[in-house]
Design brief:
This protein is an alpha+beta fold. It contains 6 helices and 6 strands, in the order ββββααααββαα. α5 (118-128) packs across α6. The longest helix has 21 residues, at 132-152. The radius of gyration is 18 Å and the shape is globular.
Length: 154
């Protein structure tokens, strides 16, 4: 932890290490090398996507607005980590529980979107790929996490 003073009031600054260069970075911010890595990943991802309609959706004003609503409602926290591991972790992705390619009409359904960190997002999709039974179980678990958050924390 680092500390700094602003106009006579002491505030605590939280820091973390950059995942690439190990420099000290203010919590909830990214180092320049992390930002560049993310930009490059995004460029490659978009270039290789085959689903143009979904790509257009994820760049739409409606999606950007809904992401802001979701981030505000859940405080930008990964709900999977919060309830499964009792850890507060920043969300990396607003994940569609029922995928957009499966049910296009649910793409803007706020009850079909859960904030998760990148690690949990990868885990969720790995479960989806194991077969329909695993996918349905994982989807149920995510809907249950949303319900739990709304019942216990709102």
């Amino acid at each position: 932890l680092g500390a700094f003073v602003i106009t006579g009031v002491m505030q605590i600054g939280l820091y973390r290490k950059c995942s690439i260069c190990n420099k000290k970075v203010e919590y909830k911010t990214k180092c320049k090398c992390e930002e560049e890595r993310d930009r490059e990943w995004c460029r490659r991802y978009k270039r290789n996507r085959k689903d143009k309609r979904e790509q257009e959706f994820y760049n739409s004003k409606e999606w950007v607005r809904l992401k802001e609503v979701i981030d505000g409602k859940y405080n930008g926290v990964c709900l999977y980590c919060l309830f499964e591991f009792n850890k507060v972790v920043d969300r990396g992705v607003n994940h569609h529980i029922v995928e957009v390619k499966e049910e296009w009409d649910r793409r803007l359904d706020k009850y079909n979107i859960i904030p998760v960190c990148n690690s949990c997002h990868k885990y969720i999709h790995s479960e989806y790929k194991k077969g329909l039974k695993n996918k349905k179980n994982m989807q149920k678990k995510q809907f249950d996490l949303l319900k739990k958050y709304n019942e216990e924390l709102i």
